[in-house]
């Protein structure tokens, strides 16, 4: 089995030209900035989201749209929390410590990676749902107000649909047990034990990397492209409806 894909270049260490050096320098600077940015503003974002959720659950604001905003805020809160935990884990722990490469941490890595992508997409689709409801409410002059049960059903259904559609993404990674020396090649490992690590699964390269291609397509369309296009179209329709109402 050929563990390479023709549309991806894996030769990251083979070329040592000026462009590669500049790219590595930019990536190093961006990584440092990203780490400090997440650690500084991540907790602030979590506190702000928790405050928003507290306000949305007040009796005066309870309703269908408040429930949708509450679900969106919950999605973003979980995403930021997982992001902060991931950055803390990758920045302040060493891969050369066997205790930092346990099965529990590998499971957390897979859950956090897939969970953040799915919850971001879920929040985007909820934004599409809110825009659609506002469009129909304006078009029907406020007579279209969904029930709370319908809102909860739509939230759960959209989340389950994203989880089911993300099956190729789940299959593209797996937990593999490898010697610790392969993770710490620059150090002499006295106790070269097997540790759990998250790697690309062997299924990724079957049938000319069909699973990897499906992962890219799902990420580009279902997670990002389709909801963005729908939001853009609904925004135009909402503006047209508002202009017609003002006349």
UniProtKB/TrEMBL annotation:
GO terms for molecular function: G protein-coupled peptide receptor activity. The keyword Transmembrane helix applies. Keywords: Membrane, Transmembrane, Transmembrane helix. This is G protein-coupled receptor. InterPro entries: 7TM_GPCR_serpentine_rcpt_Srw, GPCR_Dmsr-1. The chain crosses the membrane at residues 33-56, 122-139, 151-171, 216-239. Pfam families: 7TM_GPCR_Srw (PF10324). GO terms for cellular component: plasma membrane.
């Amino acid at each position: 089995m050929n563990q390479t894909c023709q549309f991806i270049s894996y030769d990251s260490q083979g070329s040592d030209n000026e462009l590669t050096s500049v790219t590595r320098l930019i990536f190093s600077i961006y990584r440092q900035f990203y780490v400090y940015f997440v650690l500084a503003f991540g907790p602030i974002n979590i506190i702000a989201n928790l405050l928003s959720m507290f306000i949305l659950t007040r009796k005066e604001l309870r309703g269908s749209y408040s429930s949708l905003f509450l679900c969106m805020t919950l999605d973003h809160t979980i995403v930021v929390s997982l992001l902060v935990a991931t950055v803390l884990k990758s920045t302040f722990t060493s891969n050369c410590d066997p205790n930092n490469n346990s099965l529990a941490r590998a499971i957390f890595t897979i859950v956090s990676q897939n969970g953040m992508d799915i919850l971001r997409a879920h929040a985007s689709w909820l934004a599409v749902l809110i825009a659609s409801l506002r469009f129909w409410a304006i078009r029907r002059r406020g007579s279209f107000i969904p029930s709370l049960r319908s809102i909860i059903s739509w939230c759960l259904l959209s989340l389950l649909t994203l989880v089911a559609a993300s099956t190729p993404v789940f299959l593209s990674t797996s937990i593999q047990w490898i010697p610790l020396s392969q993770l710490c090649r620059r150090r002499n490992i006295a106790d070269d034990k097997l540790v759990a690590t998250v790697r690309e699964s062997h299924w990724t390269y079957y049938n000319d990397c069909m699973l990897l291609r499906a992962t890219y397509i799902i990420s580009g369309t279902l997670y990002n492209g389709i909801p963005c296009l729908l939001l853009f179209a609904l925004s135009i329709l909402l503006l047209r409806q508002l202009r017609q109402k003002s006349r």
